[in-house]
Amino acid sequence: MATNYRATHGANARSINWNDRDEAPPPKRSNWLPLSDLDEEEMYVGTPQLHAVPAPRRNATTSQPRPDWVQQTAAYPARSRQQTQRQAAQQQVNPSGVQAKALAITAGAMVGLLGLFVAASAAVEWIQVKADDLQYGRPRTVQMDAYVGHGETEGVPSHFIAMNLNRRVTILEMPGGDSTKATTIVGPYLFGQGEDLTPVNLGVQDLNADGQADLLVSIKDEQLIYLNDGTSFRLTTPEEHAALQQFLAAPAGQEQTQSDSTIMEEAGK
Length: 269
Fold this sequence. Notes:
This protein is 34% helix and 20% strand. The chain is α+β, with helices and mostly antiparallel strands. Among the domains are: 108-137; 138-268, no CATH class. The chain has a four-stranded antiparallel beta sheet with strand order 3-4-5-6. Strands 7-8-9-10 form a four-stranded antiparallel beta sheet, with no helix packed on it. Strand 8 (214-219) and strand 9 form a beta hairpin. The longest helix is centred in the middle third of the chain and has 40 residues, at 97-136.
């Protein structure tokens, strides 16, 4: 005989049939569960256990050394990405960098050539000064013997000494070689740096066709003419100098339109 067990909730509670409860749907669960509803097998599920695995040992006999490029790459740190991007941006912004570099190289070459030219010019000037020292000495001095008709009764030519003494051109004449009768011709003063080392050259030539040798004094590209009056020399006037230059510039062998007496008259004016 089945026995019905009823549970009551007080004196006025309705009795509960336990068989009906088993067929009824389970009540809604709240946040907590009764211990009777928990399955121990589902709570304690075995989890996998972690075991330490030793690292594989490297065979020293089979290991290969790293290539050189790997070592060099490891030795030098790679450029950052920002730096590479910055350089690329600079190349894009400044496309004329190659032209500027070429211009700088050209300017440097021109400066180098200019310095070489200056050095070569200084070397040539130094060599010229040393050559003049050997030929003319210091002060620059040149000597000459010539027959000019001044006291040369004994057949001894007159002796001339031209000097560049502290930029002043001075010419000494010893008629017939007699130093007691020496006369002095004061020449021009030379202006400019280094003009105290400029040599002076002498020469004689009958320029006005009067039968007497005239004195020529050459200083660089300039030529001074001293006319012979029979006893001494005098510097030509500008008019005489122009007439003599015109006479000297005439081609050799060409017939002169003026006679020697006419040239003498023009030179004596």
